[in-house]
Amino acid sequence: MGASAPKPARPAGGDAVVDLREAIRDKLILTLGQSLETARPRDWFVATALALRDRIVEADRPQAGQPPHKRVYYLSLEFLIGRLMSDALNNLGLTETVRAALGELGVDLDAVQDAEPDAALGNGGLGRLAACFMESMASLKIPAVGYGIRYDHGLFRQSFKDGWQQEAPETWLAEGNPWEFARPEATYRIGFGGGVTMSASGDGIARRWEPVETVLAVAHDVPVVGWRGCQVNRLRLWKAEGPAPIDLARFNGGDHVGALAERMRAEAISRVLYPSDASAAGQELRLRQEYFFTSASLQDLVARHKAERGDLRSLPDHAAIQLNDTHPAIAVPELMRLLTDEEGLGWEDAWHITTHTLHYTNHTLLPEALETWPVELMERLLPRHMQIIYLINWMHLEEQAKGGHGDAAHLASVSLIDESHGRRVRMGHLAFHGARRVNGVSALHTDLMRTTVFSDLHALDSDKIVNKTNGITFRRWLHTANPGLTRLAVEVVGEGVLDKPELLRGLDALATDAGFVARYRAVRRERKQALAALVADRTGIDIDPDALFDVQVKRIHEYKRQLLNLLETVALYQAIKAEPHRDWTPRVKIFGGKAAPSYVQAKLIIKLAADVARAVNDDPEVAGRLKVVFLPNYSVSLAEAIIPAADLSEQISTAGLEASGTGNMKFALNGALTVGTLDGANIEIKDHVGAENIFIFGLDAEGVTARKAMPGYARAAIEASPRLAAALDMIASGRFSPEEPGRFRPLTDDLRGRDPYLLTADFDDYWRTQRAIDAAWRDPASWWAKAIHNTARMAWFSSDRSMREYADEIWRVRLDQ
User: Is 467 buried (19+), middle (13-18) or exposed (0-12) by CB count in 10 A?
Assistant: First the structure.
C-alpha cells in the first residue's frame, strides 16, 4: 500500500520508525493496559490510531490563532467515512513508517487495518460524497466543519439466510472510537413539542417557544486530515443524551424501568441511522433526528461566529452553510428562529442573513425521495418552526400575487405547503426558498431540476440553480484502494501525479505500448486474484480471475435496475444452456448492496439474485462460462477491494433518475469499462473518456418520458422480444424457486404491467450491448487500450475540482485565505 503514499518527512527507518514504534508501544501498554504478548489486532489498531491521532493534533496546531476569513459548514445526515486509518496514513505520508514500526513489534500493518470497523454512518452515495468532500476541503485548505450524527449503530449489518437479507445492528462503536475527541463543553439544548407564548416587545410582539421536552446534543469531533497533512478540519458528530441520566425519585419508588424512559427516548435520536419510517413513530423519529442535528449545528456555528466576530449581521461574510439534501432543510426556519427569537434581530435582517448563508444541494428527482412532512406532525413537534414556515410562505405567496402570478394553480405549485394529499410541508421547496444557491450534481440532473421538480420555482429565480458535478477523492479511491496502479502511474508520469491527477493524461500515449499494457494488466490481475480469494472466503464460491468481472455494487433500488442485470443473467444462462458447445466469453457477475429493511421489492430482488446464483453456479453445463456472486454486507472497505478488480462497471439506472452517481467515477478511474445509460454523470464520463471507450445503451431521459406516455409499452416490448419473454417466463414459473413457485411473481407481474423503470423497453439493447462487450473482451489489445484511456481521462472527476467550483461559485471562499 505504501508505495502510493507521499514520501514521509523522514525515511522509513531511523528516528521516525523508532519514534512511532515507541509511541505505539506506549499507547498499547500505558493507555490500553495490554501486553505485547496478549494484544489482539483490535488493540494494536487502537494503539496505532491513538499514536497517529497525536501526530494529527500536532499537525493541526499551526491552525490555531486568528480565525479564517470564511468557513464552510457542511450539514449532512450521512457521512460514510468507512475506515480512517488508511486515509490518515496516506495523507500524512506515514504508511511505510508505520509498517516498519509495527514490523519491529512483530505486527502486520494490514492485519491492524483490517481490525478497524467501517464507520457506516451513511446509506450510499450521499454519505460517501460527503466524506470525499470533507477530505478534499482539508486538502485544498478550505476551513470547514462537517456536521452530522454520531449514530451508535450505522447502516445495518447485512447477512443472508436462505438467500433472504437479514439485518442486524452495526456495532462500530462497541469498543469505542479512538479517532474521536469528546467535546462535552460543546453541548446544546434541543427542544421538542410544547407551545409558543407571545409578549409585547418594543414596537411589536415577541414570540417565545417553550418546549416540553429537551434533549442534549453533545459534540464528538473526528479529525479530517488533508493531503500531505496540509490542514486538519473537523467532522463534528452529535450524540443525543437526556438532560438527566435517571429519574432518581421514580427509581427509588420502584419504577426502575420508567426511571430511564426519558433518557432512552432522548438517546433513541442518535441510536440508529435511518430508522424505518413505515410507522408514525418511525416518521417522528426521523424528523427528530433531522431537527436535532440541524439545530445543534446552527447553535454551534452561531456561537462560534459571535465569539470570533460579534455581530451576527456579518454571518454571510464569514460562513457558508451547505445543506446536503433536504434532511437539514429545517435549517431555514431554525436559523430564522435563532436570529429573531434568541438573538433579537428583526425579520428582514434575519431573512437576509439566512438567505445569504444557506445553500442547498439536491440529490434526487424521485418524488418519493423529496421529503415532505405532515403539517400535523410539524405543528406538534416544532410549533414555532411551523409559525415561521407559515409566515415565510405567506410573504412568498403575497409577492407572487402582487407580481401578477396569483392564479390558484401557480400558487399551489410554488407554495411551501402541499395540500393535494393532506397538508404536508415540502422540504425541497423550503430549502430552495431559503438558499442563496441551489445546485444539482450532474449536468443532466441540474437541467432536469430546472424543468421538472423545481420548474415553477426556477421560473421565479432563474439564476439560483447551478450545476456542480460530483467528484471522488483520488487519495482514497486510487492511492489507497489501488496502490499497484498508483505506483505504476508514478513510475511512468512522475510523482507529481499524486498532487495533480490531470497528469494521469500522460498514460493516454501508452495505451498501445505493449510493455505498459502488460504491466497495467498485471496490476488488474493481482487485484482480481485478491477479490477471488475474498469471494471464496465469504461465499464459498470459486471464481476465475481470468474471466470478465462484471460488477454492480450499490444500494438495491428498482430505479438502479439490478433486476435488469438479473434478467440478462437469466437470458444468458438460457442461451448457454441452448448452445453449450459455443465459445462463450467467461463472465462472473458480482452483485453487492443493501435493501432498506421495509423495501419489499428490493429485498425480493436480492432473493432472486441468490436463487439465480444457486441454480447457475450448480449447473455443470455452464461451468467455466458463467458464475453469479452476491457479496454480503457491502461497505466502503469492501468497495475498496471490489472496484480495482472490476472489468465492467454496471451503471444502468433508468435515464433521468440517477442524480449523478460516484461509483461510476471510481470504477472508471481504476480502468473498468462502463456499461450504462445516458443518466447522471455517465453522460459526462462519456464526454471525458470518449464514446468509443464506454458502452452506452437504452433510452435517454427524453426517450423515457416519451415511452412512458405510450399505453401498454411494457406488454408491447415483451411481445417483441422472445428472449425477454423467455427469461420472464423462467423466473415466473418457479424454475429458480421450486419450493415456492410463485415467489417472484410480484416482480414479473410488475414488469408485465406497470414497469415504471422501463426494464422491458431497454432489455434488448442491453442484451446487444452485453454481447458487444463479450466480443470486446476477446480483443485484449483493444480492451486494455480502452481501460487505460478511462484511467487517463478521469482527472476532472476529482472531488478537488468539485470543491474548487463550490468554493468559487457558491460559497465565495478564497482558497488562499
Answer: middle
555 catalytic residue (yes or no): yes
Residue 421 bears catalytic tag: no
Q: Summarize pLDDT for 201-226 with one digit per residue, the tens.
A: 777 788 999 999 999 999 999 999 99
Q: Which residues pair with 208 in a beta bridge?
A: 197
**Closest to 212 measured CA to CA, from 193, 184, 239, 186:** 193
Question: 304 catalytic, yes or no?
Answer: no
Q: What is the pLDDT of residue 366?
A: 85
- Residue pair 325/362 in contact (Cβ under 8 Å)? The answer is yes
The amino acid sitting at 210 is E
Backbone angles phi, psi at 492, to 5 degrees: -90, -45
Low-confidence ranges of the chain (pLDDT < 70): 1-14, 62-65, 817
- pLDDT for residue 3: 36
C-alpha dist (Å) from residue 380 to 135, 375, 386, 437: 39, 9, 9, 31
β-sheet with 437-440: strand ranges across: 181-192, 213-225, 232-241, 144-149, 71-75, 319-324, 358-361, 437-440, 465-467
CATH class of 544-781: alpha beta
pLDDT tens across 470-484, in order?
A: 999 999 999 999 999
Which H or E run contains 181?
Answer: strand 181-192
* Catalytic, out of 555, 557, 743, 786: 555
What is the pLDDT at residue 370? Answer: 87
Contact 97, 7 (CB under 8 A): no
pLDDT at residue number 804: 98
Q: Which residues contact 51 (CB under 8 A, 6 or more apart)?
A: 20, 23, 24, 26, 27
pLDDT of residue 64: 59
The ranges assigned to domains in the chain are 1-64+85-116, 70-83+118-470+803-811, 544-781
Burial status of residue 478 (CB atoms within 10 A of its CB: 0-12, 13-18, 19 or more): buried
Active-site residue, from 27, 234, 666, 743 = 666
| CA angle (623 as vertex; 618, 626 as ends), nearest 5 | 95
Cα→Cα distances 572→609, 625, 771, Å: 14, 10, 10
Alpha-carbon separation of residue 761 from 574, 676, 713, 755, 773 (angstroms):
20, 15, 7, 9, 20
Give residue 11's pLDDT. 40
Residue 220, beta-bridge partner list: 182, 237
691 burial class (0-12, 13-18, 19+ CB within 10 angstroms)? exposed
Pairing of strands 587-592, 71-75: unpaired
| 528 in catalytic set | no
**Annotation says 469 is catalytic:** no
Closest Cα to residue 725, out of 707, 704, 698, 752? 752
Reported as type and span, the H/E element at residue 217 is strand 213-225
Q: Which of 239, 327, 359, 363 is catalytic?
A: 363
In contact, 172 and 120? CB cutoff 8 Å: yes
- Cα–Cα dist 126/129, whole Å: 5
β-bridge pairing 587-592 and 626-631:
parallel
Q: Do domains 70-83+118-470+803-811 and 544-781 have the same CATH topology?
A: yes
**Which of 462, 480, 814, 496 lies closest to 666 in space, CA to CA?**
480
Predicted confidence at residue 65, as pLDDT, reads 67
Residue among 153, 458, 560, 793 flagged as catalytic: 560
* Active-site choice (357, 662, 677, 769): 662
Instruction: Please tell me the CATH code under which domain 70-83+118-470+803-811 is placed.
Output: 3.40.50.2000
Sign for the CA dihedral angle at 493, 497, 501, 502 comes to negative
569 as an active site residue: the answer is: no
What is the helix (H) or strand (E) element at residue 192, kind and residue range? strand 181-192
> Please, are residues 55 and 24 in contact by the beta-carbon 8 Å criterion?
no
Query: What are the DSSP calls for 759-785, one per residue?
Result: HHHHHHHHHHHHHHHHHHHT-HHHHHH
Q: Which residue has the cell 432536469?
A: 448
